[in-house]
Write a sequence for this structure.
């Protein structure tokens, strides 16, 4: 093998310019493969992280995935007469006996849970009105399942505990109505009449629509405003491992009877789009390496044509067809290996340079850096793909060289 390797290196040195051109193609292919892959993977993981951080991992609502059958249908499933147009009785909506369900969910390891009562209301201030979503929360529990506490620009979440008539609003709503900490607003919800509340906190999530329409009050305050005493309509859960959300949501739905949706189920469309985007991305960056492999094919084909007499002499000296095939495959392997190593170094440099680029999207208040993923999988994949395409590109000319007939070649009948 050492002799075959020495011959392969000698051939590569004999046409150094062509070898360097082929090598350059592999280096650039691997480097761009890494840079583009790191940028796309980084943006995907950054998006999923924001999705996971800003939404509950599991949401249990006071709805049912399928409507419960009527008692008459269960008692007489094959009855000859069916009762139609049954109107359900009016009841106070919400999750019943939520305290017991809350205590049950807290026993699951790695699970944090908080109750929420969500409803609609109208905010009034200085003769102006605005429809808002009002969420009744328990501040201490909410801190464990959301990053709301990190988004305050004035006041804090704990202030709700000290001010039962307090309300937290978004920065866009505060700006629209010229409100600030301590301002008094009037809230109308249902038939409970007006309720005067004091602003104890202002948050900015980065979503202008959310910041203009979402408000938070104490759970008991929301229950009084929405006329749902001892009821909630949401249980939101955060998991230590968010990727276990789908299985746990399915289990909880069967046990509690209420609809439980994981973030994976709620975001299926977005995740499918990300998968398609990855397929397109890998196809594009893979095409760069395939184009580079044509350079290797061209270089080794030229070697085979120029070294025809050398190959014939080698065979007449006792070299087998397999030995000749190995020599030219080694040439492709050497180009692929050196090109991959150099491409990895240049690609890592490109990734480092991209990670320093600062951007400020329209509407954002803070600058951020391009998200770059440094996972070892993409380094391994780039090297593996480069070696595979290099060997594939060298195989066809290597096979042609191995089939040369030495006698005819030396007689000049190539």
């Amino acid at each position: 093998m050492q002799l075959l390797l020495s011959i392969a290196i000698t051939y590569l040195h004999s046409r150094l310019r062509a070898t360097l051109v082929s090598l350059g193609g592999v280096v650039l292919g691997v480097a761009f493969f890494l840079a583009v892959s790191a940028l796309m993977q980084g943006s995907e993981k950054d998006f999923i992280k924001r999705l996971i951080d800003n939404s509950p991992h599991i949401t249990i609502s006071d709805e049912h995935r399928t409507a419960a059958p009527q008692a008459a249908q269960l008692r007489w499933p094959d009855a000859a007469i069916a009762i139609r147009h049954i109107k359900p009785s009016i009841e106070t909506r919400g999750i019943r006996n939520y305290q017991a369900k809350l205590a049950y969910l807290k026993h699951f390891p790695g699970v944090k849970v908080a109750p929420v009562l969500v409803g609609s209301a109208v905010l009034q201030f200085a003769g102006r009105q605005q429809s808002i979503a009002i969420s009744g929360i328990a501040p201490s529990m909410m801190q464990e399942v959301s990053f709301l506490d990190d988004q305050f620009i004035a006041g804090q979440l704990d202030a709700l505990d000290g001010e039962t008539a307090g309300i937290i609003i978004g920065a866009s709503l505060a700006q629209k109505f010229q409100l600030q900490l301590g301002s008094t607003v009037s809230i109308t919800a249902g038939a409970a009449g007006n309720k005067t509340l004091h602003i104890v906190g202002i948050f900015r999530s980065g979503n202008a629509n959310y910041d203009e329409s979402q408000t938070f009050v104490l759970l008991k305050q929301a229950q009084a405003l929405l006329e749902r005493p001892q009821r909630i309509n949401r249980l939101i859960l955060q998991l230590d491992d968010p990727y276990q959300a789908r299985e746990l949501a399915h289990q909880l739905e069967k046990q509690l009877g209420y609809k439980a949706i994981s973030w994976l189920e709620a975001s299926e469309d977005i995740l499918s789009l990300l998968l398609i985007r990855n397929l397109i991305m890998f196809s594009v960056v893979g095409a760069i390496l395939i184009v580079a492999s044509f350079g290797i094919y061209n270089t080794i084909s030229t070697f085979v044509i120029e070294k025809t007499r050398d190959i014939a002499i080698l065979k007449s000296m006792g070299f087998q067809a397999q030995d000749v095939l190995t020599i030219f495959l080694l040439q492709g392997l050497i180009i692929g290996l050196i090109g991959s190593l150099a491409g990895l170094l240049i690609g890592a440099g490109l990734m480092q340079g991209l990670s320093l680029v600062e951007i400020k999207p329209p509407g954002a208040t803070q600058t951020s850096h391009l998200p770059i993923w440094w996972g070892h999988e993409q380094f391994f994949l780039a090297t593996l793909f480069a070696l595979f395409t290099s060997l594939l590109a060298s195989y066809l000319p290597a096979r042609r060289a191995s089939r040369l007939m030495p006698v005819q070649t030396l007689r000049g009948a190539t």
